[in-house]
């Protein structure tokens, strides 16, 4: 099938010139994607799945399809006249030194640093008390593989700092290997542990550490179901084959996600066990008593509850049990059930995310998605409100009990992330690291608005752009959203978004229902049979931007990844005329089968499944992007992005959606899929690949809004 793509490419006319538009014709011939007669029956209703064969990530036929689609996509992208210029500007702006907050382990102070364009951050260290300029490279993931596609994951130091356990990811996969290093000699100790997934690493003294994993699935390790998580203990000096299962081996009680952690004093092992991404059971074991059994704190999954801290047997617990915005309670470890809990920091109208350091608790609250931090002692006395550098997101506020100072980060949409040193006793903050970047925040502004969704619910949105930008409805705009899994989108600086805004672009982020910005009630209002609320919130955000002349449908792009990819897919199929460009990334797009892949069944709290009930099946089918692509509809210019090693949201979602759109698209807007090789769901993606991806995404977006050169260049020409 052959489509002729005719973007309305006239930049000078866009900025007010009266010349006739130039028309550049790009012919796109999509690969022929075969259809098969696969039919599933749900509650008596037959549902066709003609592209089911694309779910087989191991087949040569799927590999050929991926190759053919990429050839078409990159042939198109290569013809965008300013693609290389965008890549150059992204590279230039990215090329500044980025340093993380220092932390102490044993005799050393460690920190992460990236010189600028290194594919992966490097871990450095220096002897505590010595000049930081003496820092040496301790662990450099860039040496793992030349192209940077092996990344460093979880790191955990033993209690005395003499050993480091760290995980690595190959090609972006969630399956990890774990290695152990002697920190003094930097030599590897013992065997490499394999086939570990969704795991923290937590040491018991120096003897060994706890980790979590699934049995290796039969069939494809990228797409086969994994839903029985187990906690293991690895004793140093023994092979992995002798590692003992500590928790989760009971077949009749599946836990899809189990996290094991040891308290800072090494006295207790804490287990959080979940069947879904929301809600967990909680158990504790006294490690000071040989042979001690686990004690149940919570035996249901009705709340998200975790141990924040302990002082001896006194536990400080964070929970949203009967407190949707979370509170802190205390209880004795010997009798820790909820009927013995005592409120310590009660629930407020704002969502709480606490941390500890230096014998204090730092209560970080979200107030309309921006940070407010209160400092308490362990008796519950309010010490002070921490004075933050501005309005934005503050994170960190964590260190060991004996420390006198800690480091925290601060950022917002126009402020590159800076590190502050905080004196715990006095409350004084001191700027510790400010990045030297070729970006002037004074030239940009960021403001929050509130708009009404379809049902009248007020939704906050932060809009960021150049100062003095003319609101004439013609500004290229990216509307970015997520809206799920209790995840909050708070203000943070992005190099890529800075480049977008340099071009006169607007970047808008609404805090949709389904997220965690206003606690559990806000999250639940965007789940299961209320999922349409999320899409309505996003659509209303787009309408607000258009009604208030920030942009118009001709200059609006919608973007989101993972659950946000579902958001984009649902929005573009429900309201295709609302936006010019759609950018679904690593999206959950087949809502009838998502739970049959990898750990997808764990997302049922948010989505429900097509097997739950006839009503749930019909609701999911009613918005599932894959099942709502219709013949005779002109969908927006679409660039679907995914990774061939994504084993969280398997690429089959994107493959099938692309095939469906390409077969049914009407009109001139291109539908392309960009499949990154040796890449997964996003974490650990090399900087070089990230820059190329953004150059392609922004290039595709601007090109399909009618630009044949970058807007910033045009503005300079007009000014001259």
UniProtKB/TrEMBL annotation:
Annotated Peptidase S9 prolyl oligopeptidase catalytic domain residues: 491-702
Name of the featured protein: prolyl oligopeptidase
Listed transmembrane segments: none
Keywords: Hydrolase, Periplasm, Protease, Serine protease, Signal
Chief subcellular location: periplasm
PANTHER family cross-referenced by the UniProt entry: PROLYL ENDOPEPTIDASE (PTHR42881:SF2)
Catalytic activity: Hydrolysis of Pro-|-Xaa >> Ala-|-Xaa in oligopeptides
Source organism per UniProt: Aequorivita aquimaris
Family: Belongs to the peptidase S9A family.
E.C. no: 3.4.21.26
Recorded superkingdom: Bacteria
């Amino acid at each position: 099938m052959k489509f002729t793509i005719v973007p309305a490419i006239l930049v000078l006319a866009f900025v007010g010139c009266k010349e006739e538009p130039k028309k550049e014709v790009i012919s796109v011939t999509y690969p022929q994607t075969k259809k098969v007669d696969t039919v599933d029956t749900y509650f008596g209703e037959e549902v066709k799945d003609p592209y089911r064969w694309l779910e087989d990530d191991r087949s040569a036929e799927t590999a050929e399809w991926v190759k053919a689609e990429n050839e078409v996509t990159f042939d198109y992208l290569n013809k965008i006249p300013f693609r290389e210029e965008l890549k150059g500007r992204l590279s230039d702006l990215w090329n500044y030194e980025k340093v993380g907050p220092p932390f102490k382990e044993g005799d050393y102070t460690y920190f992460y640093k990236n010189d600028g364009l290194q594919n992966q951050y490097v871990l450095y260290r220096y002897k505590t008390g010595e000049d930081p300029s003496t820092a040496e490279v301790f662990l450099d993931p860039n040496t793992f593989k030349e192209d940077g596609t092996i990344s460093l994951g979880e790191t955990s130091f033993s209690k005395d700092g003499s050993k480091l356990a760290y995980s690595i990811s190959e090609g972006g996969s969630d399956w990890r290997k774990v290695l152990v290093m002697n920190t003094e000699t930097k030599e590897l100790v013992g065997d490499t542990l394999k086939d570990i997934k969704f795991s923290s690493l937590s040491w018991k003294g120096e003897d060994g550490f706890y980790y979590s994993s699934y049995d290796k699935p039969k069939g494809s390790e990228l797409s086969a179901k994994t839903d029985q998580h187990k906690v293991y203990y690895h004793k140093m000096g023994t092979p992995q084959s002798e590692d003992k299962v500590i928790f989760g081996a009971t077949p009749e009680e599946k836990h899809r996600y189990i996290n094991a952690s040891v308290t800072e004093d090494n006295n207790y092992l804490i287990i959080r066990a979940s069947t879904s991404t929301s809600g967990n059971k909680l158990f504790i074991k006294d490690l000071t008593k040989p042979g001690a059994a686990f004690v149940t704190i919570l035996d249901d999954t009705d709340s998200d509850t975790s141990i924040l801290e302990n002082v001896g047997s006194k536990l400080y617990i964070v929970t949203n049990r009967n407190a949707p915005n979370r509170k802190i309670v205390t209880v004795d470890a010997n009798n820790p059930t909820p009927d013995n809990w005592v409120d310590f920091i009660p629930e407020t109208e704002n969502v709480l995310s606490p941390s500890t350091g230096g014998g204090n608790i730092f209560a970080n609250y979200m107030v309309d998605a921006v940070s407010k931090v209160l400092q308490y002692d362990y008796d519950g006395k309010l010490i002070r409100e921490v004075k933050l550098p501005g309005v934005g997101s503050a994170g960190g506020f964590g260190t060991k009990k004996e420390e006198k100072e800690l480091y925290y980060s601060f950022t917002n949409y126009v402020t590159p992330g800076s590190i502050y040193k905080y004196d715990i006793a006095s409350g004084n903050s001191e700027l510790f690291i400010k990045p030297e970047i070729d970006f002037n925040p004074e030239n940009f502004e960021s403001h929050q608005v509130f708009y009404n969704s379809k049902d009248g619910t007020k939704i906050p949105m932060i809009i960021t752009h150049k100062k003095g930008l003319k609101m004439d409805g013609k500004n290229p705009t990216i509307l970015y959203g997520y809206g799920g899994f209790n995840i909050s989108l708070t203000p943070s600086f992005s190099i890529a978004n800075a480049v977008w805004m340099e071009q006169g672009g607007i970047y808008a982020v609404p805090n949709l229902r389904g997220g965690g910005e206003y606690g559990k009630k806000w999250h639940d209002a965007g789940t299961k049979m209320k999922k349409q609320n999320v899409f309505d919130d996003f659509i209303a955000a787009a309408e607000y931007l258009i009604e208030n002349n920030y942009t118009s449908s001709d200059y609006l792009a919608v973007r989101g990844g993972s659950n946000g990819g579902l958001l984009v897919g649902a929005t573009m199929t429900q309201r295709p005329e609302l936006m010019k460009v759609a950018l679904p990334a690593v999206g959950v797009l087949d809502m009838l089968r998502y739970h049959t892949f990898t750990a997808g069944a764990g997302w049922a709290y948010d989505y429900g499944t097509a097997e739950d009930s006839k009503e749930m099946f019909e609701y999911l089918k009613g918005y599932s992007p894959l099942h709502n692509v219709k013949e005779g509809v002109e969908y927006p210019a679409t660039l679907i992005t995914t990774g061939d090693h994504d084993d969280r949201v398997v690429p089959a979602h994107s493959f099938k959606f692309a095939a469906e759109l390409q077969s049914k698209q009407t009109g001139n807007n291109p539908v392309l899929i960009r499949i990154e090789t040796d890449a997964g769901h996003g974490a650990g993606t090399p900087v070089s690949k990230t820059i190329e991806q953004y150059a392609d995404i922004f290039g595709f977006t601007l090109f399909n809004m009618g630009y044949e050169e970058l807007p910033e260049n045009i503005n300079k020409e007009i000014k001259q």
